[in-house]
């Protein structure tokens, strides 16, 4: 079983024709405002453009010139385009604050339709854009109706809204294209003075206009002029960049490269901060890891849900988004898509289903985003973890191109961070348990008593953690907190003369990519038992159809007598059969 | 592997204390307005109450009387409470339109906090409530800040908003409780005259008030008076209901019962409409099924995404919600929770991840809701299906208490509807394929050449569809459109002397609940091959670890030579080994 190739057709195909207003706006944007150089379409300080209206894409391609090359996103499920664009604009704001306007000075444009404005994810993202005051963001929406309640909701979120009516008939009783064009041009020109994110909404009720709108040839921008304007802008930028005092740092961010000696520095920082402490939980270890990464790699950009005063551990470096999980995840996609930043999201356990569409879009776009999935109670109060994962783990493991890590201790936590940082072609989700592990966190290598070569550990996705590697009577496979249960079970089974081997399985996808020999060595030929406080969906892959899966009910009280009896009965039944 | 028991702790625990304004509002609501009789807390025409603030629940329980008995929902992830309440209010509107105000005349109340107002699902549901003009809905939010942008967004959606400031200090410099109480009482009294849904927002910035708010004893409503008011209302209603001309029909709806001879009538209607036609796709068959059910059981209430002019097949009976999938799914939960209605949602394939949190809430609440998952392209245009399911099928199959049906032909489609209608303790998702099946739809019983008893068919979740039942060389297991591919493969394999048996597997959860003997008889002992245009995640359960799974890539061109060669090679390798 391999990862499934992505069907782009899965993304919403809203194939209605663009409204006349949107078409005129697109022409005005390219002709008048867009900072875009066809000879180097990906230069860092270009304007970002997101199009979420497939019909418009076809019309744009009819224009002379390579329109696609200048687009950052050309299709997405409804609403995601606006969320991504807010992330792009946030990246611009963050980078220009760091490197100054001489290096970072561009805008983000969205061309979309009414469906985008209706969605909850767009409304969440719009509220965040208003809260963050992202004045260099402009959404242009072509709406096939007179209702502008969508625009009102954006205005309520602190956006500046301009309405362009395409319903005023001209002298011939049809739409007055000239008037529409002038209104759109004026609205786009007004973005230069904007102090808030701007929405330009072009309304056009059914029945207005001359059937399918046609492009007026005179309105098509002269492509040579567009290109010349872009080339001038880019060359000016290049001159400034060449002399800039932060040029090396900017280039490193831009290339997504780690600083020199990054791995050595991180290992040292880790040992100093985590290694010297008492046994820490994966959640606490993740807090340290985030702090260390933020110091060594300031391009890390962290969004959280909690308001600042609730979550001191992450606040120093985080932007709080409130209860807007889905919008936050869409913003993270935009931060990643912009380039030059490392997007991290700290979310609560119950959020994962809410932000799933954005996570999947990141997977489809092969975009690096890291979601830290913390227990809400533990993150807010340091109290015991109350989250019980059920099908969420299975549903994330099933999602193509998403790596799910469920570390059981600080060593595995660090390995998960290392893997997630190294994964530039897709999102990672790290599920963090708030309960402390009994194992000392300063042990760098995973202990195992078997014959596997040294260095084999969490980065393989699964490894033998303890117990006899070869002559085992049973293999206990677990992840996260349940590894501790498996370890306890191993010790109790040993008292009954049963030699158990504990396999920790933090990441299915990594383990599935190792070679078959390693997988067979880890899983062994003895009967297999899986332990995870979750639905057992999909576990047959590792346990076989004969294997025993022990979920939350069975291990509710840890390794108690009932669990021991159940395991022994299962093993006895197998031996008899 | 059984379904996992639901951890209620998975729902968001927002355990902060309620604001003073919310507390006063709750007291005013019970004391002054709520239509609630403790001696019969579930009488049909009671007011519906949704509480989404756990801290408030504890305070309410301190009040004398059985508060919990009058609540329809007392905890939910952020935003879902508002969405559910909009559904409750929609149910009231629909039922009073059918049975008149003498039988149905109640209100829906929500007590929530600021987090609820921020979420996308609440904003989507609020837009729908405004669009539908649900004037008997009142949301009371206690917000721990002065910012009222959340209220502005509701106002933009056509809500009437009243602000109650709890920040005006009284003579002692502390909060003036008396003023707050009067303002809240006036706001609640105003709901009687409301022509639009109402939001009462009580703002209270940090630092105002006397620390943790305390209940003023004088403000606690006299429980005996509350109960007397409710009893009077209920007795009046009982007298009217007893003499009502639609009493029998109302009682049937209320009990969720099918009309007499329902099964006979539906079978006849089905035969007349579908049986006489040409081979129809599951999608077309589902359209007929919905029409028939709507005629025989007018309590069916259908929400769709598409605006009316796009989807003529379902419009006659559907309420179009626009691109607000998540809000729509939350409304469906409310329709189900209200009682007396059969909630159906017609959604597009790409929507399923967007409405997942609402679907899961329905599963947790053990609420009957049916989602018909249509291909967007096919539903809008009748064109070929373009959706390729990837991990969505696996992730829904993994969700506890959700039945996923993927029928391959009209017979299985009807069986899926029958099962979904019979399932009153959880949601069902029916995945509908727009491509016509080659099999004639008028065959009532599934053909199989084996020894399984007659009557065994789709309602078992899986069944032998064709091929030799006992002496088979290979078992091909498929669902939906891939059953046709499996049938073609069976015929081609027969040409090479290989006897294949085709098993259709429309519903995993149903099949898992049949007894082991049946499962073994269906799956057989021959090598197994699974065919599904999706991720193979979880398929090891039916195929074993030795089985072969053929996903979208392998069957992209149907049963072509490459597929045949691959299957033959696999079988040859097994025989050799």
Automatic annotation (TrEMBL), chains A, B:
Gene3D superfamilies: 3.40.50.920, 3.40.50.970. One of its GO terms (molecular function) is metal ion binding. One of its GO terms (cellular component) is cytosol. Its cofactor is Mg(2+); thiamine diphosphate. Residues 434-445 have a biased composition (Basic and acidic residues). Pfam families: Transket_pyr (PF02779), Transketolase_C_1 (PF22613), Transketolase_N (PF00456). Signal peptide: none annotated. This is Transketolase. It comes from Tanticharoenia sakaeratensis NBRC 103193. The lineage of its organism: Bacteria, Pseudomonadati, Pseudomonadota, Alphaproteobacteria, Acetobacterales.
